[in-house]
Specification:
Blueprint (H helix, E strand, L loop, with lengths): L1 H21 L3 H20 L29 H4 L5 E7 L5 H9 L7 H6 L6 E10 L10 E5 L17 E11 L7 H8 L4 E7 L7 H12 L5 E6 L6 H15 L9 E3 L8 H11 L12 E8 L15 E8 L2 E2 L3 E11 L5 E9 L2 E4 L2 E3 L1 E2 L5 E4 L16 E4 L6 E11 L2 E6 L5 E3 L8 E6 L2 E11 L2 E11 L5 E8 L2 E16 L5
Helix pairs in contact: 1-2, 6-7
């Protein structure tokens, strides 16, 4: 306060001195100067007003929660967290992250090496609320509007002359998948949590590009058929060229899972036709059925240590796991388990898994605090786990759930596999797509199980069945679908998929 008091006195003194020098209405100018000085000093001395948070309806206390009464459109849920996951897929630099930013206002490219190279490497998440004006005279698609996740529930319509109110219809989480071919495994782990997809195709390049084909194949494997196709960068094209490109998109999707999908011309950079995307999301993507009564099962996609360097011991916080809940509801205070946990080898060289146990301290969806979390969006789960175990994505690929209620941990799996006929994105010297060779005994391939990417050695093979020894143990269920990739020309390339039919389980260590 002393510093502020000094400034306060100096202000009055200097202002009143200048008043005396003028010799005109000295008394009045002194008073005016003093008033000015007091006002300016008060402005400087007063603490900054706290930033007002938009009003969001409160959530039911966990102890009073009846999960059977919840749905993905329950007002107290969609006001705070996303309940639908939409992946943005397509070739590198076709504008996936730009589209997400145009809809949600959130930049998903957050890591230094991503910003330098202008590509997405890690799965980026951004939430957006989609509203519709309740005034019947508001024309489509301009009556649809999207905002950030922390926007209030019923804001006024922003169209000039409209007295309507925006009504919240959807709360969507965009999973921004990397388009770079080397990063296909990241994209496949994103496909595991997608309910629908936006397929980006840049209008200023020929269609299809290598990763466009590969991503479409990946979502076919995941049985994802709710797709909206965005013909991006139309601002860089003439009308005739745009029509020809549109025809090439129709030819590309014919006979695929995206065959009947709507195609919307957009410019993500100029935010042209973003309202049409919002319209399509609400009217063509159904709300996915969710099972809230099952035991919660969350796959971890990110994990981090939130403590700043130099923090005092009493200020330290536990590690945070970020992921997508596939089914069930997580609540504050729940006792949780993370599998497979800490993986080591004993004196004989056998694998040993020690699950991590903790309690949920906080739940967040972007900047919104939650008392309970349901499937949809990226949920941050604050725990009491040693933060060093969570630092730099060390928990990625793990599964989080209630203590003692998670699936088994497998070190070997038996699968029925299906190989693609042609290798996506790879061409031979004569310009034809390369064929996929059969699996060979003792070959090492990559397997994507949920958000886990692990090496696997083919130990036995018979027709379309194989036995795989996993490099890292995985927590999974019988019947789970997995993606198979092979190393070709220094890149991991998608070669097919498989269903888990049996396996060798590891008994988790108790200490």
């Amino acid at each position: 306060m002393a510093a502020n008091g000094d400034k306060f006195g100096n202000d009055i003194e200097s202002e009143s001195d200048s008043g005396n020098e003028s010799q005109i209405d000295a008394h009045e100018s002194d008073n005016e100067a003093a008033d000015k000085g007091i006002k300016s000093a008060m402005k400087r001395a007063a603490p900054a007003a706290p930033v007002a948070r938009p009003y969001l309806p409160p959530q039911t206390e966990p102890k009073d929660l009846d999960v059977k009464s919840l749905s993905p459109l329950t007002p107290e849920i969609i006001a705070r967290q996303a309940t639908i996951n939409i992946g943005t897929i397509g070739h590198v630099a076709h504008g996936k992250s730009t589209v997400v930013k145009a809809i949600s206002g959130v930049q998903t490219v957050r890591f230094k090496n991503e910003l330098i190279r202008n590509i997405t490497i890690k799965l980026g998440y951004a939430n957006a609320k989609i509203y519709k004006c309740d005034n019947q005279e508001c024309p489509r698609p301009t009556c649809y509007r999207s905002y950030k996740s922390d926007k209030e529930v019923d804001p006024p319509c922003e169209r000039e002359g409209c007295a309507g109110t925006y009504r919240l219809l959807r709360h969507v989480s965009f999973v921004d998948c990397p388009g770079h071919d080397i990063l296909m495994s990241t994209m496949l782990s994103g496909a595991a949590v997608m309910d629908a997809a936006l397929l980006l195709i840049a209008g200023n390049e020929s269609c299809p590009q290598p990763q466009t084909s590969e991503h479409l194949a990946a979502i076919e494997i995941m049985k994802l058929d709710k797709i909206i196709i965005l013909q991006n960068k139309v601002d860089l094209m003439r009308e005739e060229a745009a029509k020809q490109h549109y025809d090439s998109i129709l030819k590309f999707i014919r006979g695929t899972v995206a065959g009947k999908s709507p195609i919307i011309p957009i410019s993500a950079q100029l935010k042209f036709n973003i309202d049409a995307i919002n319209d399509a999301i609400v009217n063509t993507i159904p709300v996915p059925p969710r099972d809230f009564s099952q035991d919660p099962h969350m796959i971890v996609i990110r994990s981090f240590d939130v403590n700043k360097p130099g923090s005092e011991i009493e200020e330290l916080k536990g590690g945070v796991a970020g992921g997508s809940i596939l089914h069930g509801v997580l609540k504050l205070g729940d006792e949780i388990e993370i599998r497979p946990g800490i993986v080591t080898r004993d004196d004989k060289g056998d694998l040993k898994c020690t699950p991590i146990f903790s309690r949920i301290v906080t739940l967040n969806s972007e900047s919104n605090d939650l008392k309970y979390a349901v499937p949809g969006g990226l949920i941050g789960v604050g725990t009491r786990i040693d933060p060093t175990l969570c630092r730099a994505d060390r928990l990625v690929g793990f599964v989080l759930g209630l203590k003692g209620r998670l699936p088994d941990i497998y070190s070997e799996i038996e699968v029925n596999f299906y190989l693609l006929r042609r290798l996506l994105g790879v061409r031979t010297a004569d310009g034809k797509q390369a064929k996929v060779d059969k699996l060979a005994k003792n070959e090492v391939i990559m397997v994507n199980i949920g958000s886990t990417s692990t090496g696997a050695k083919v130990s036995a093979i018979k027709k379309d069945a194989a036995k795989l020894i996993l490099t890292s143990p995985a927590c999974t269920n019988i019947g789970e679908k997995v993606a198979l990739s092979r190393r070709i020309e220094k890149h991991w390339r998608l070669i097919g998929w498989a269903n888990i039919t049996a396996g060798v389980t590891l008994e988790p260590a108790t200490s």
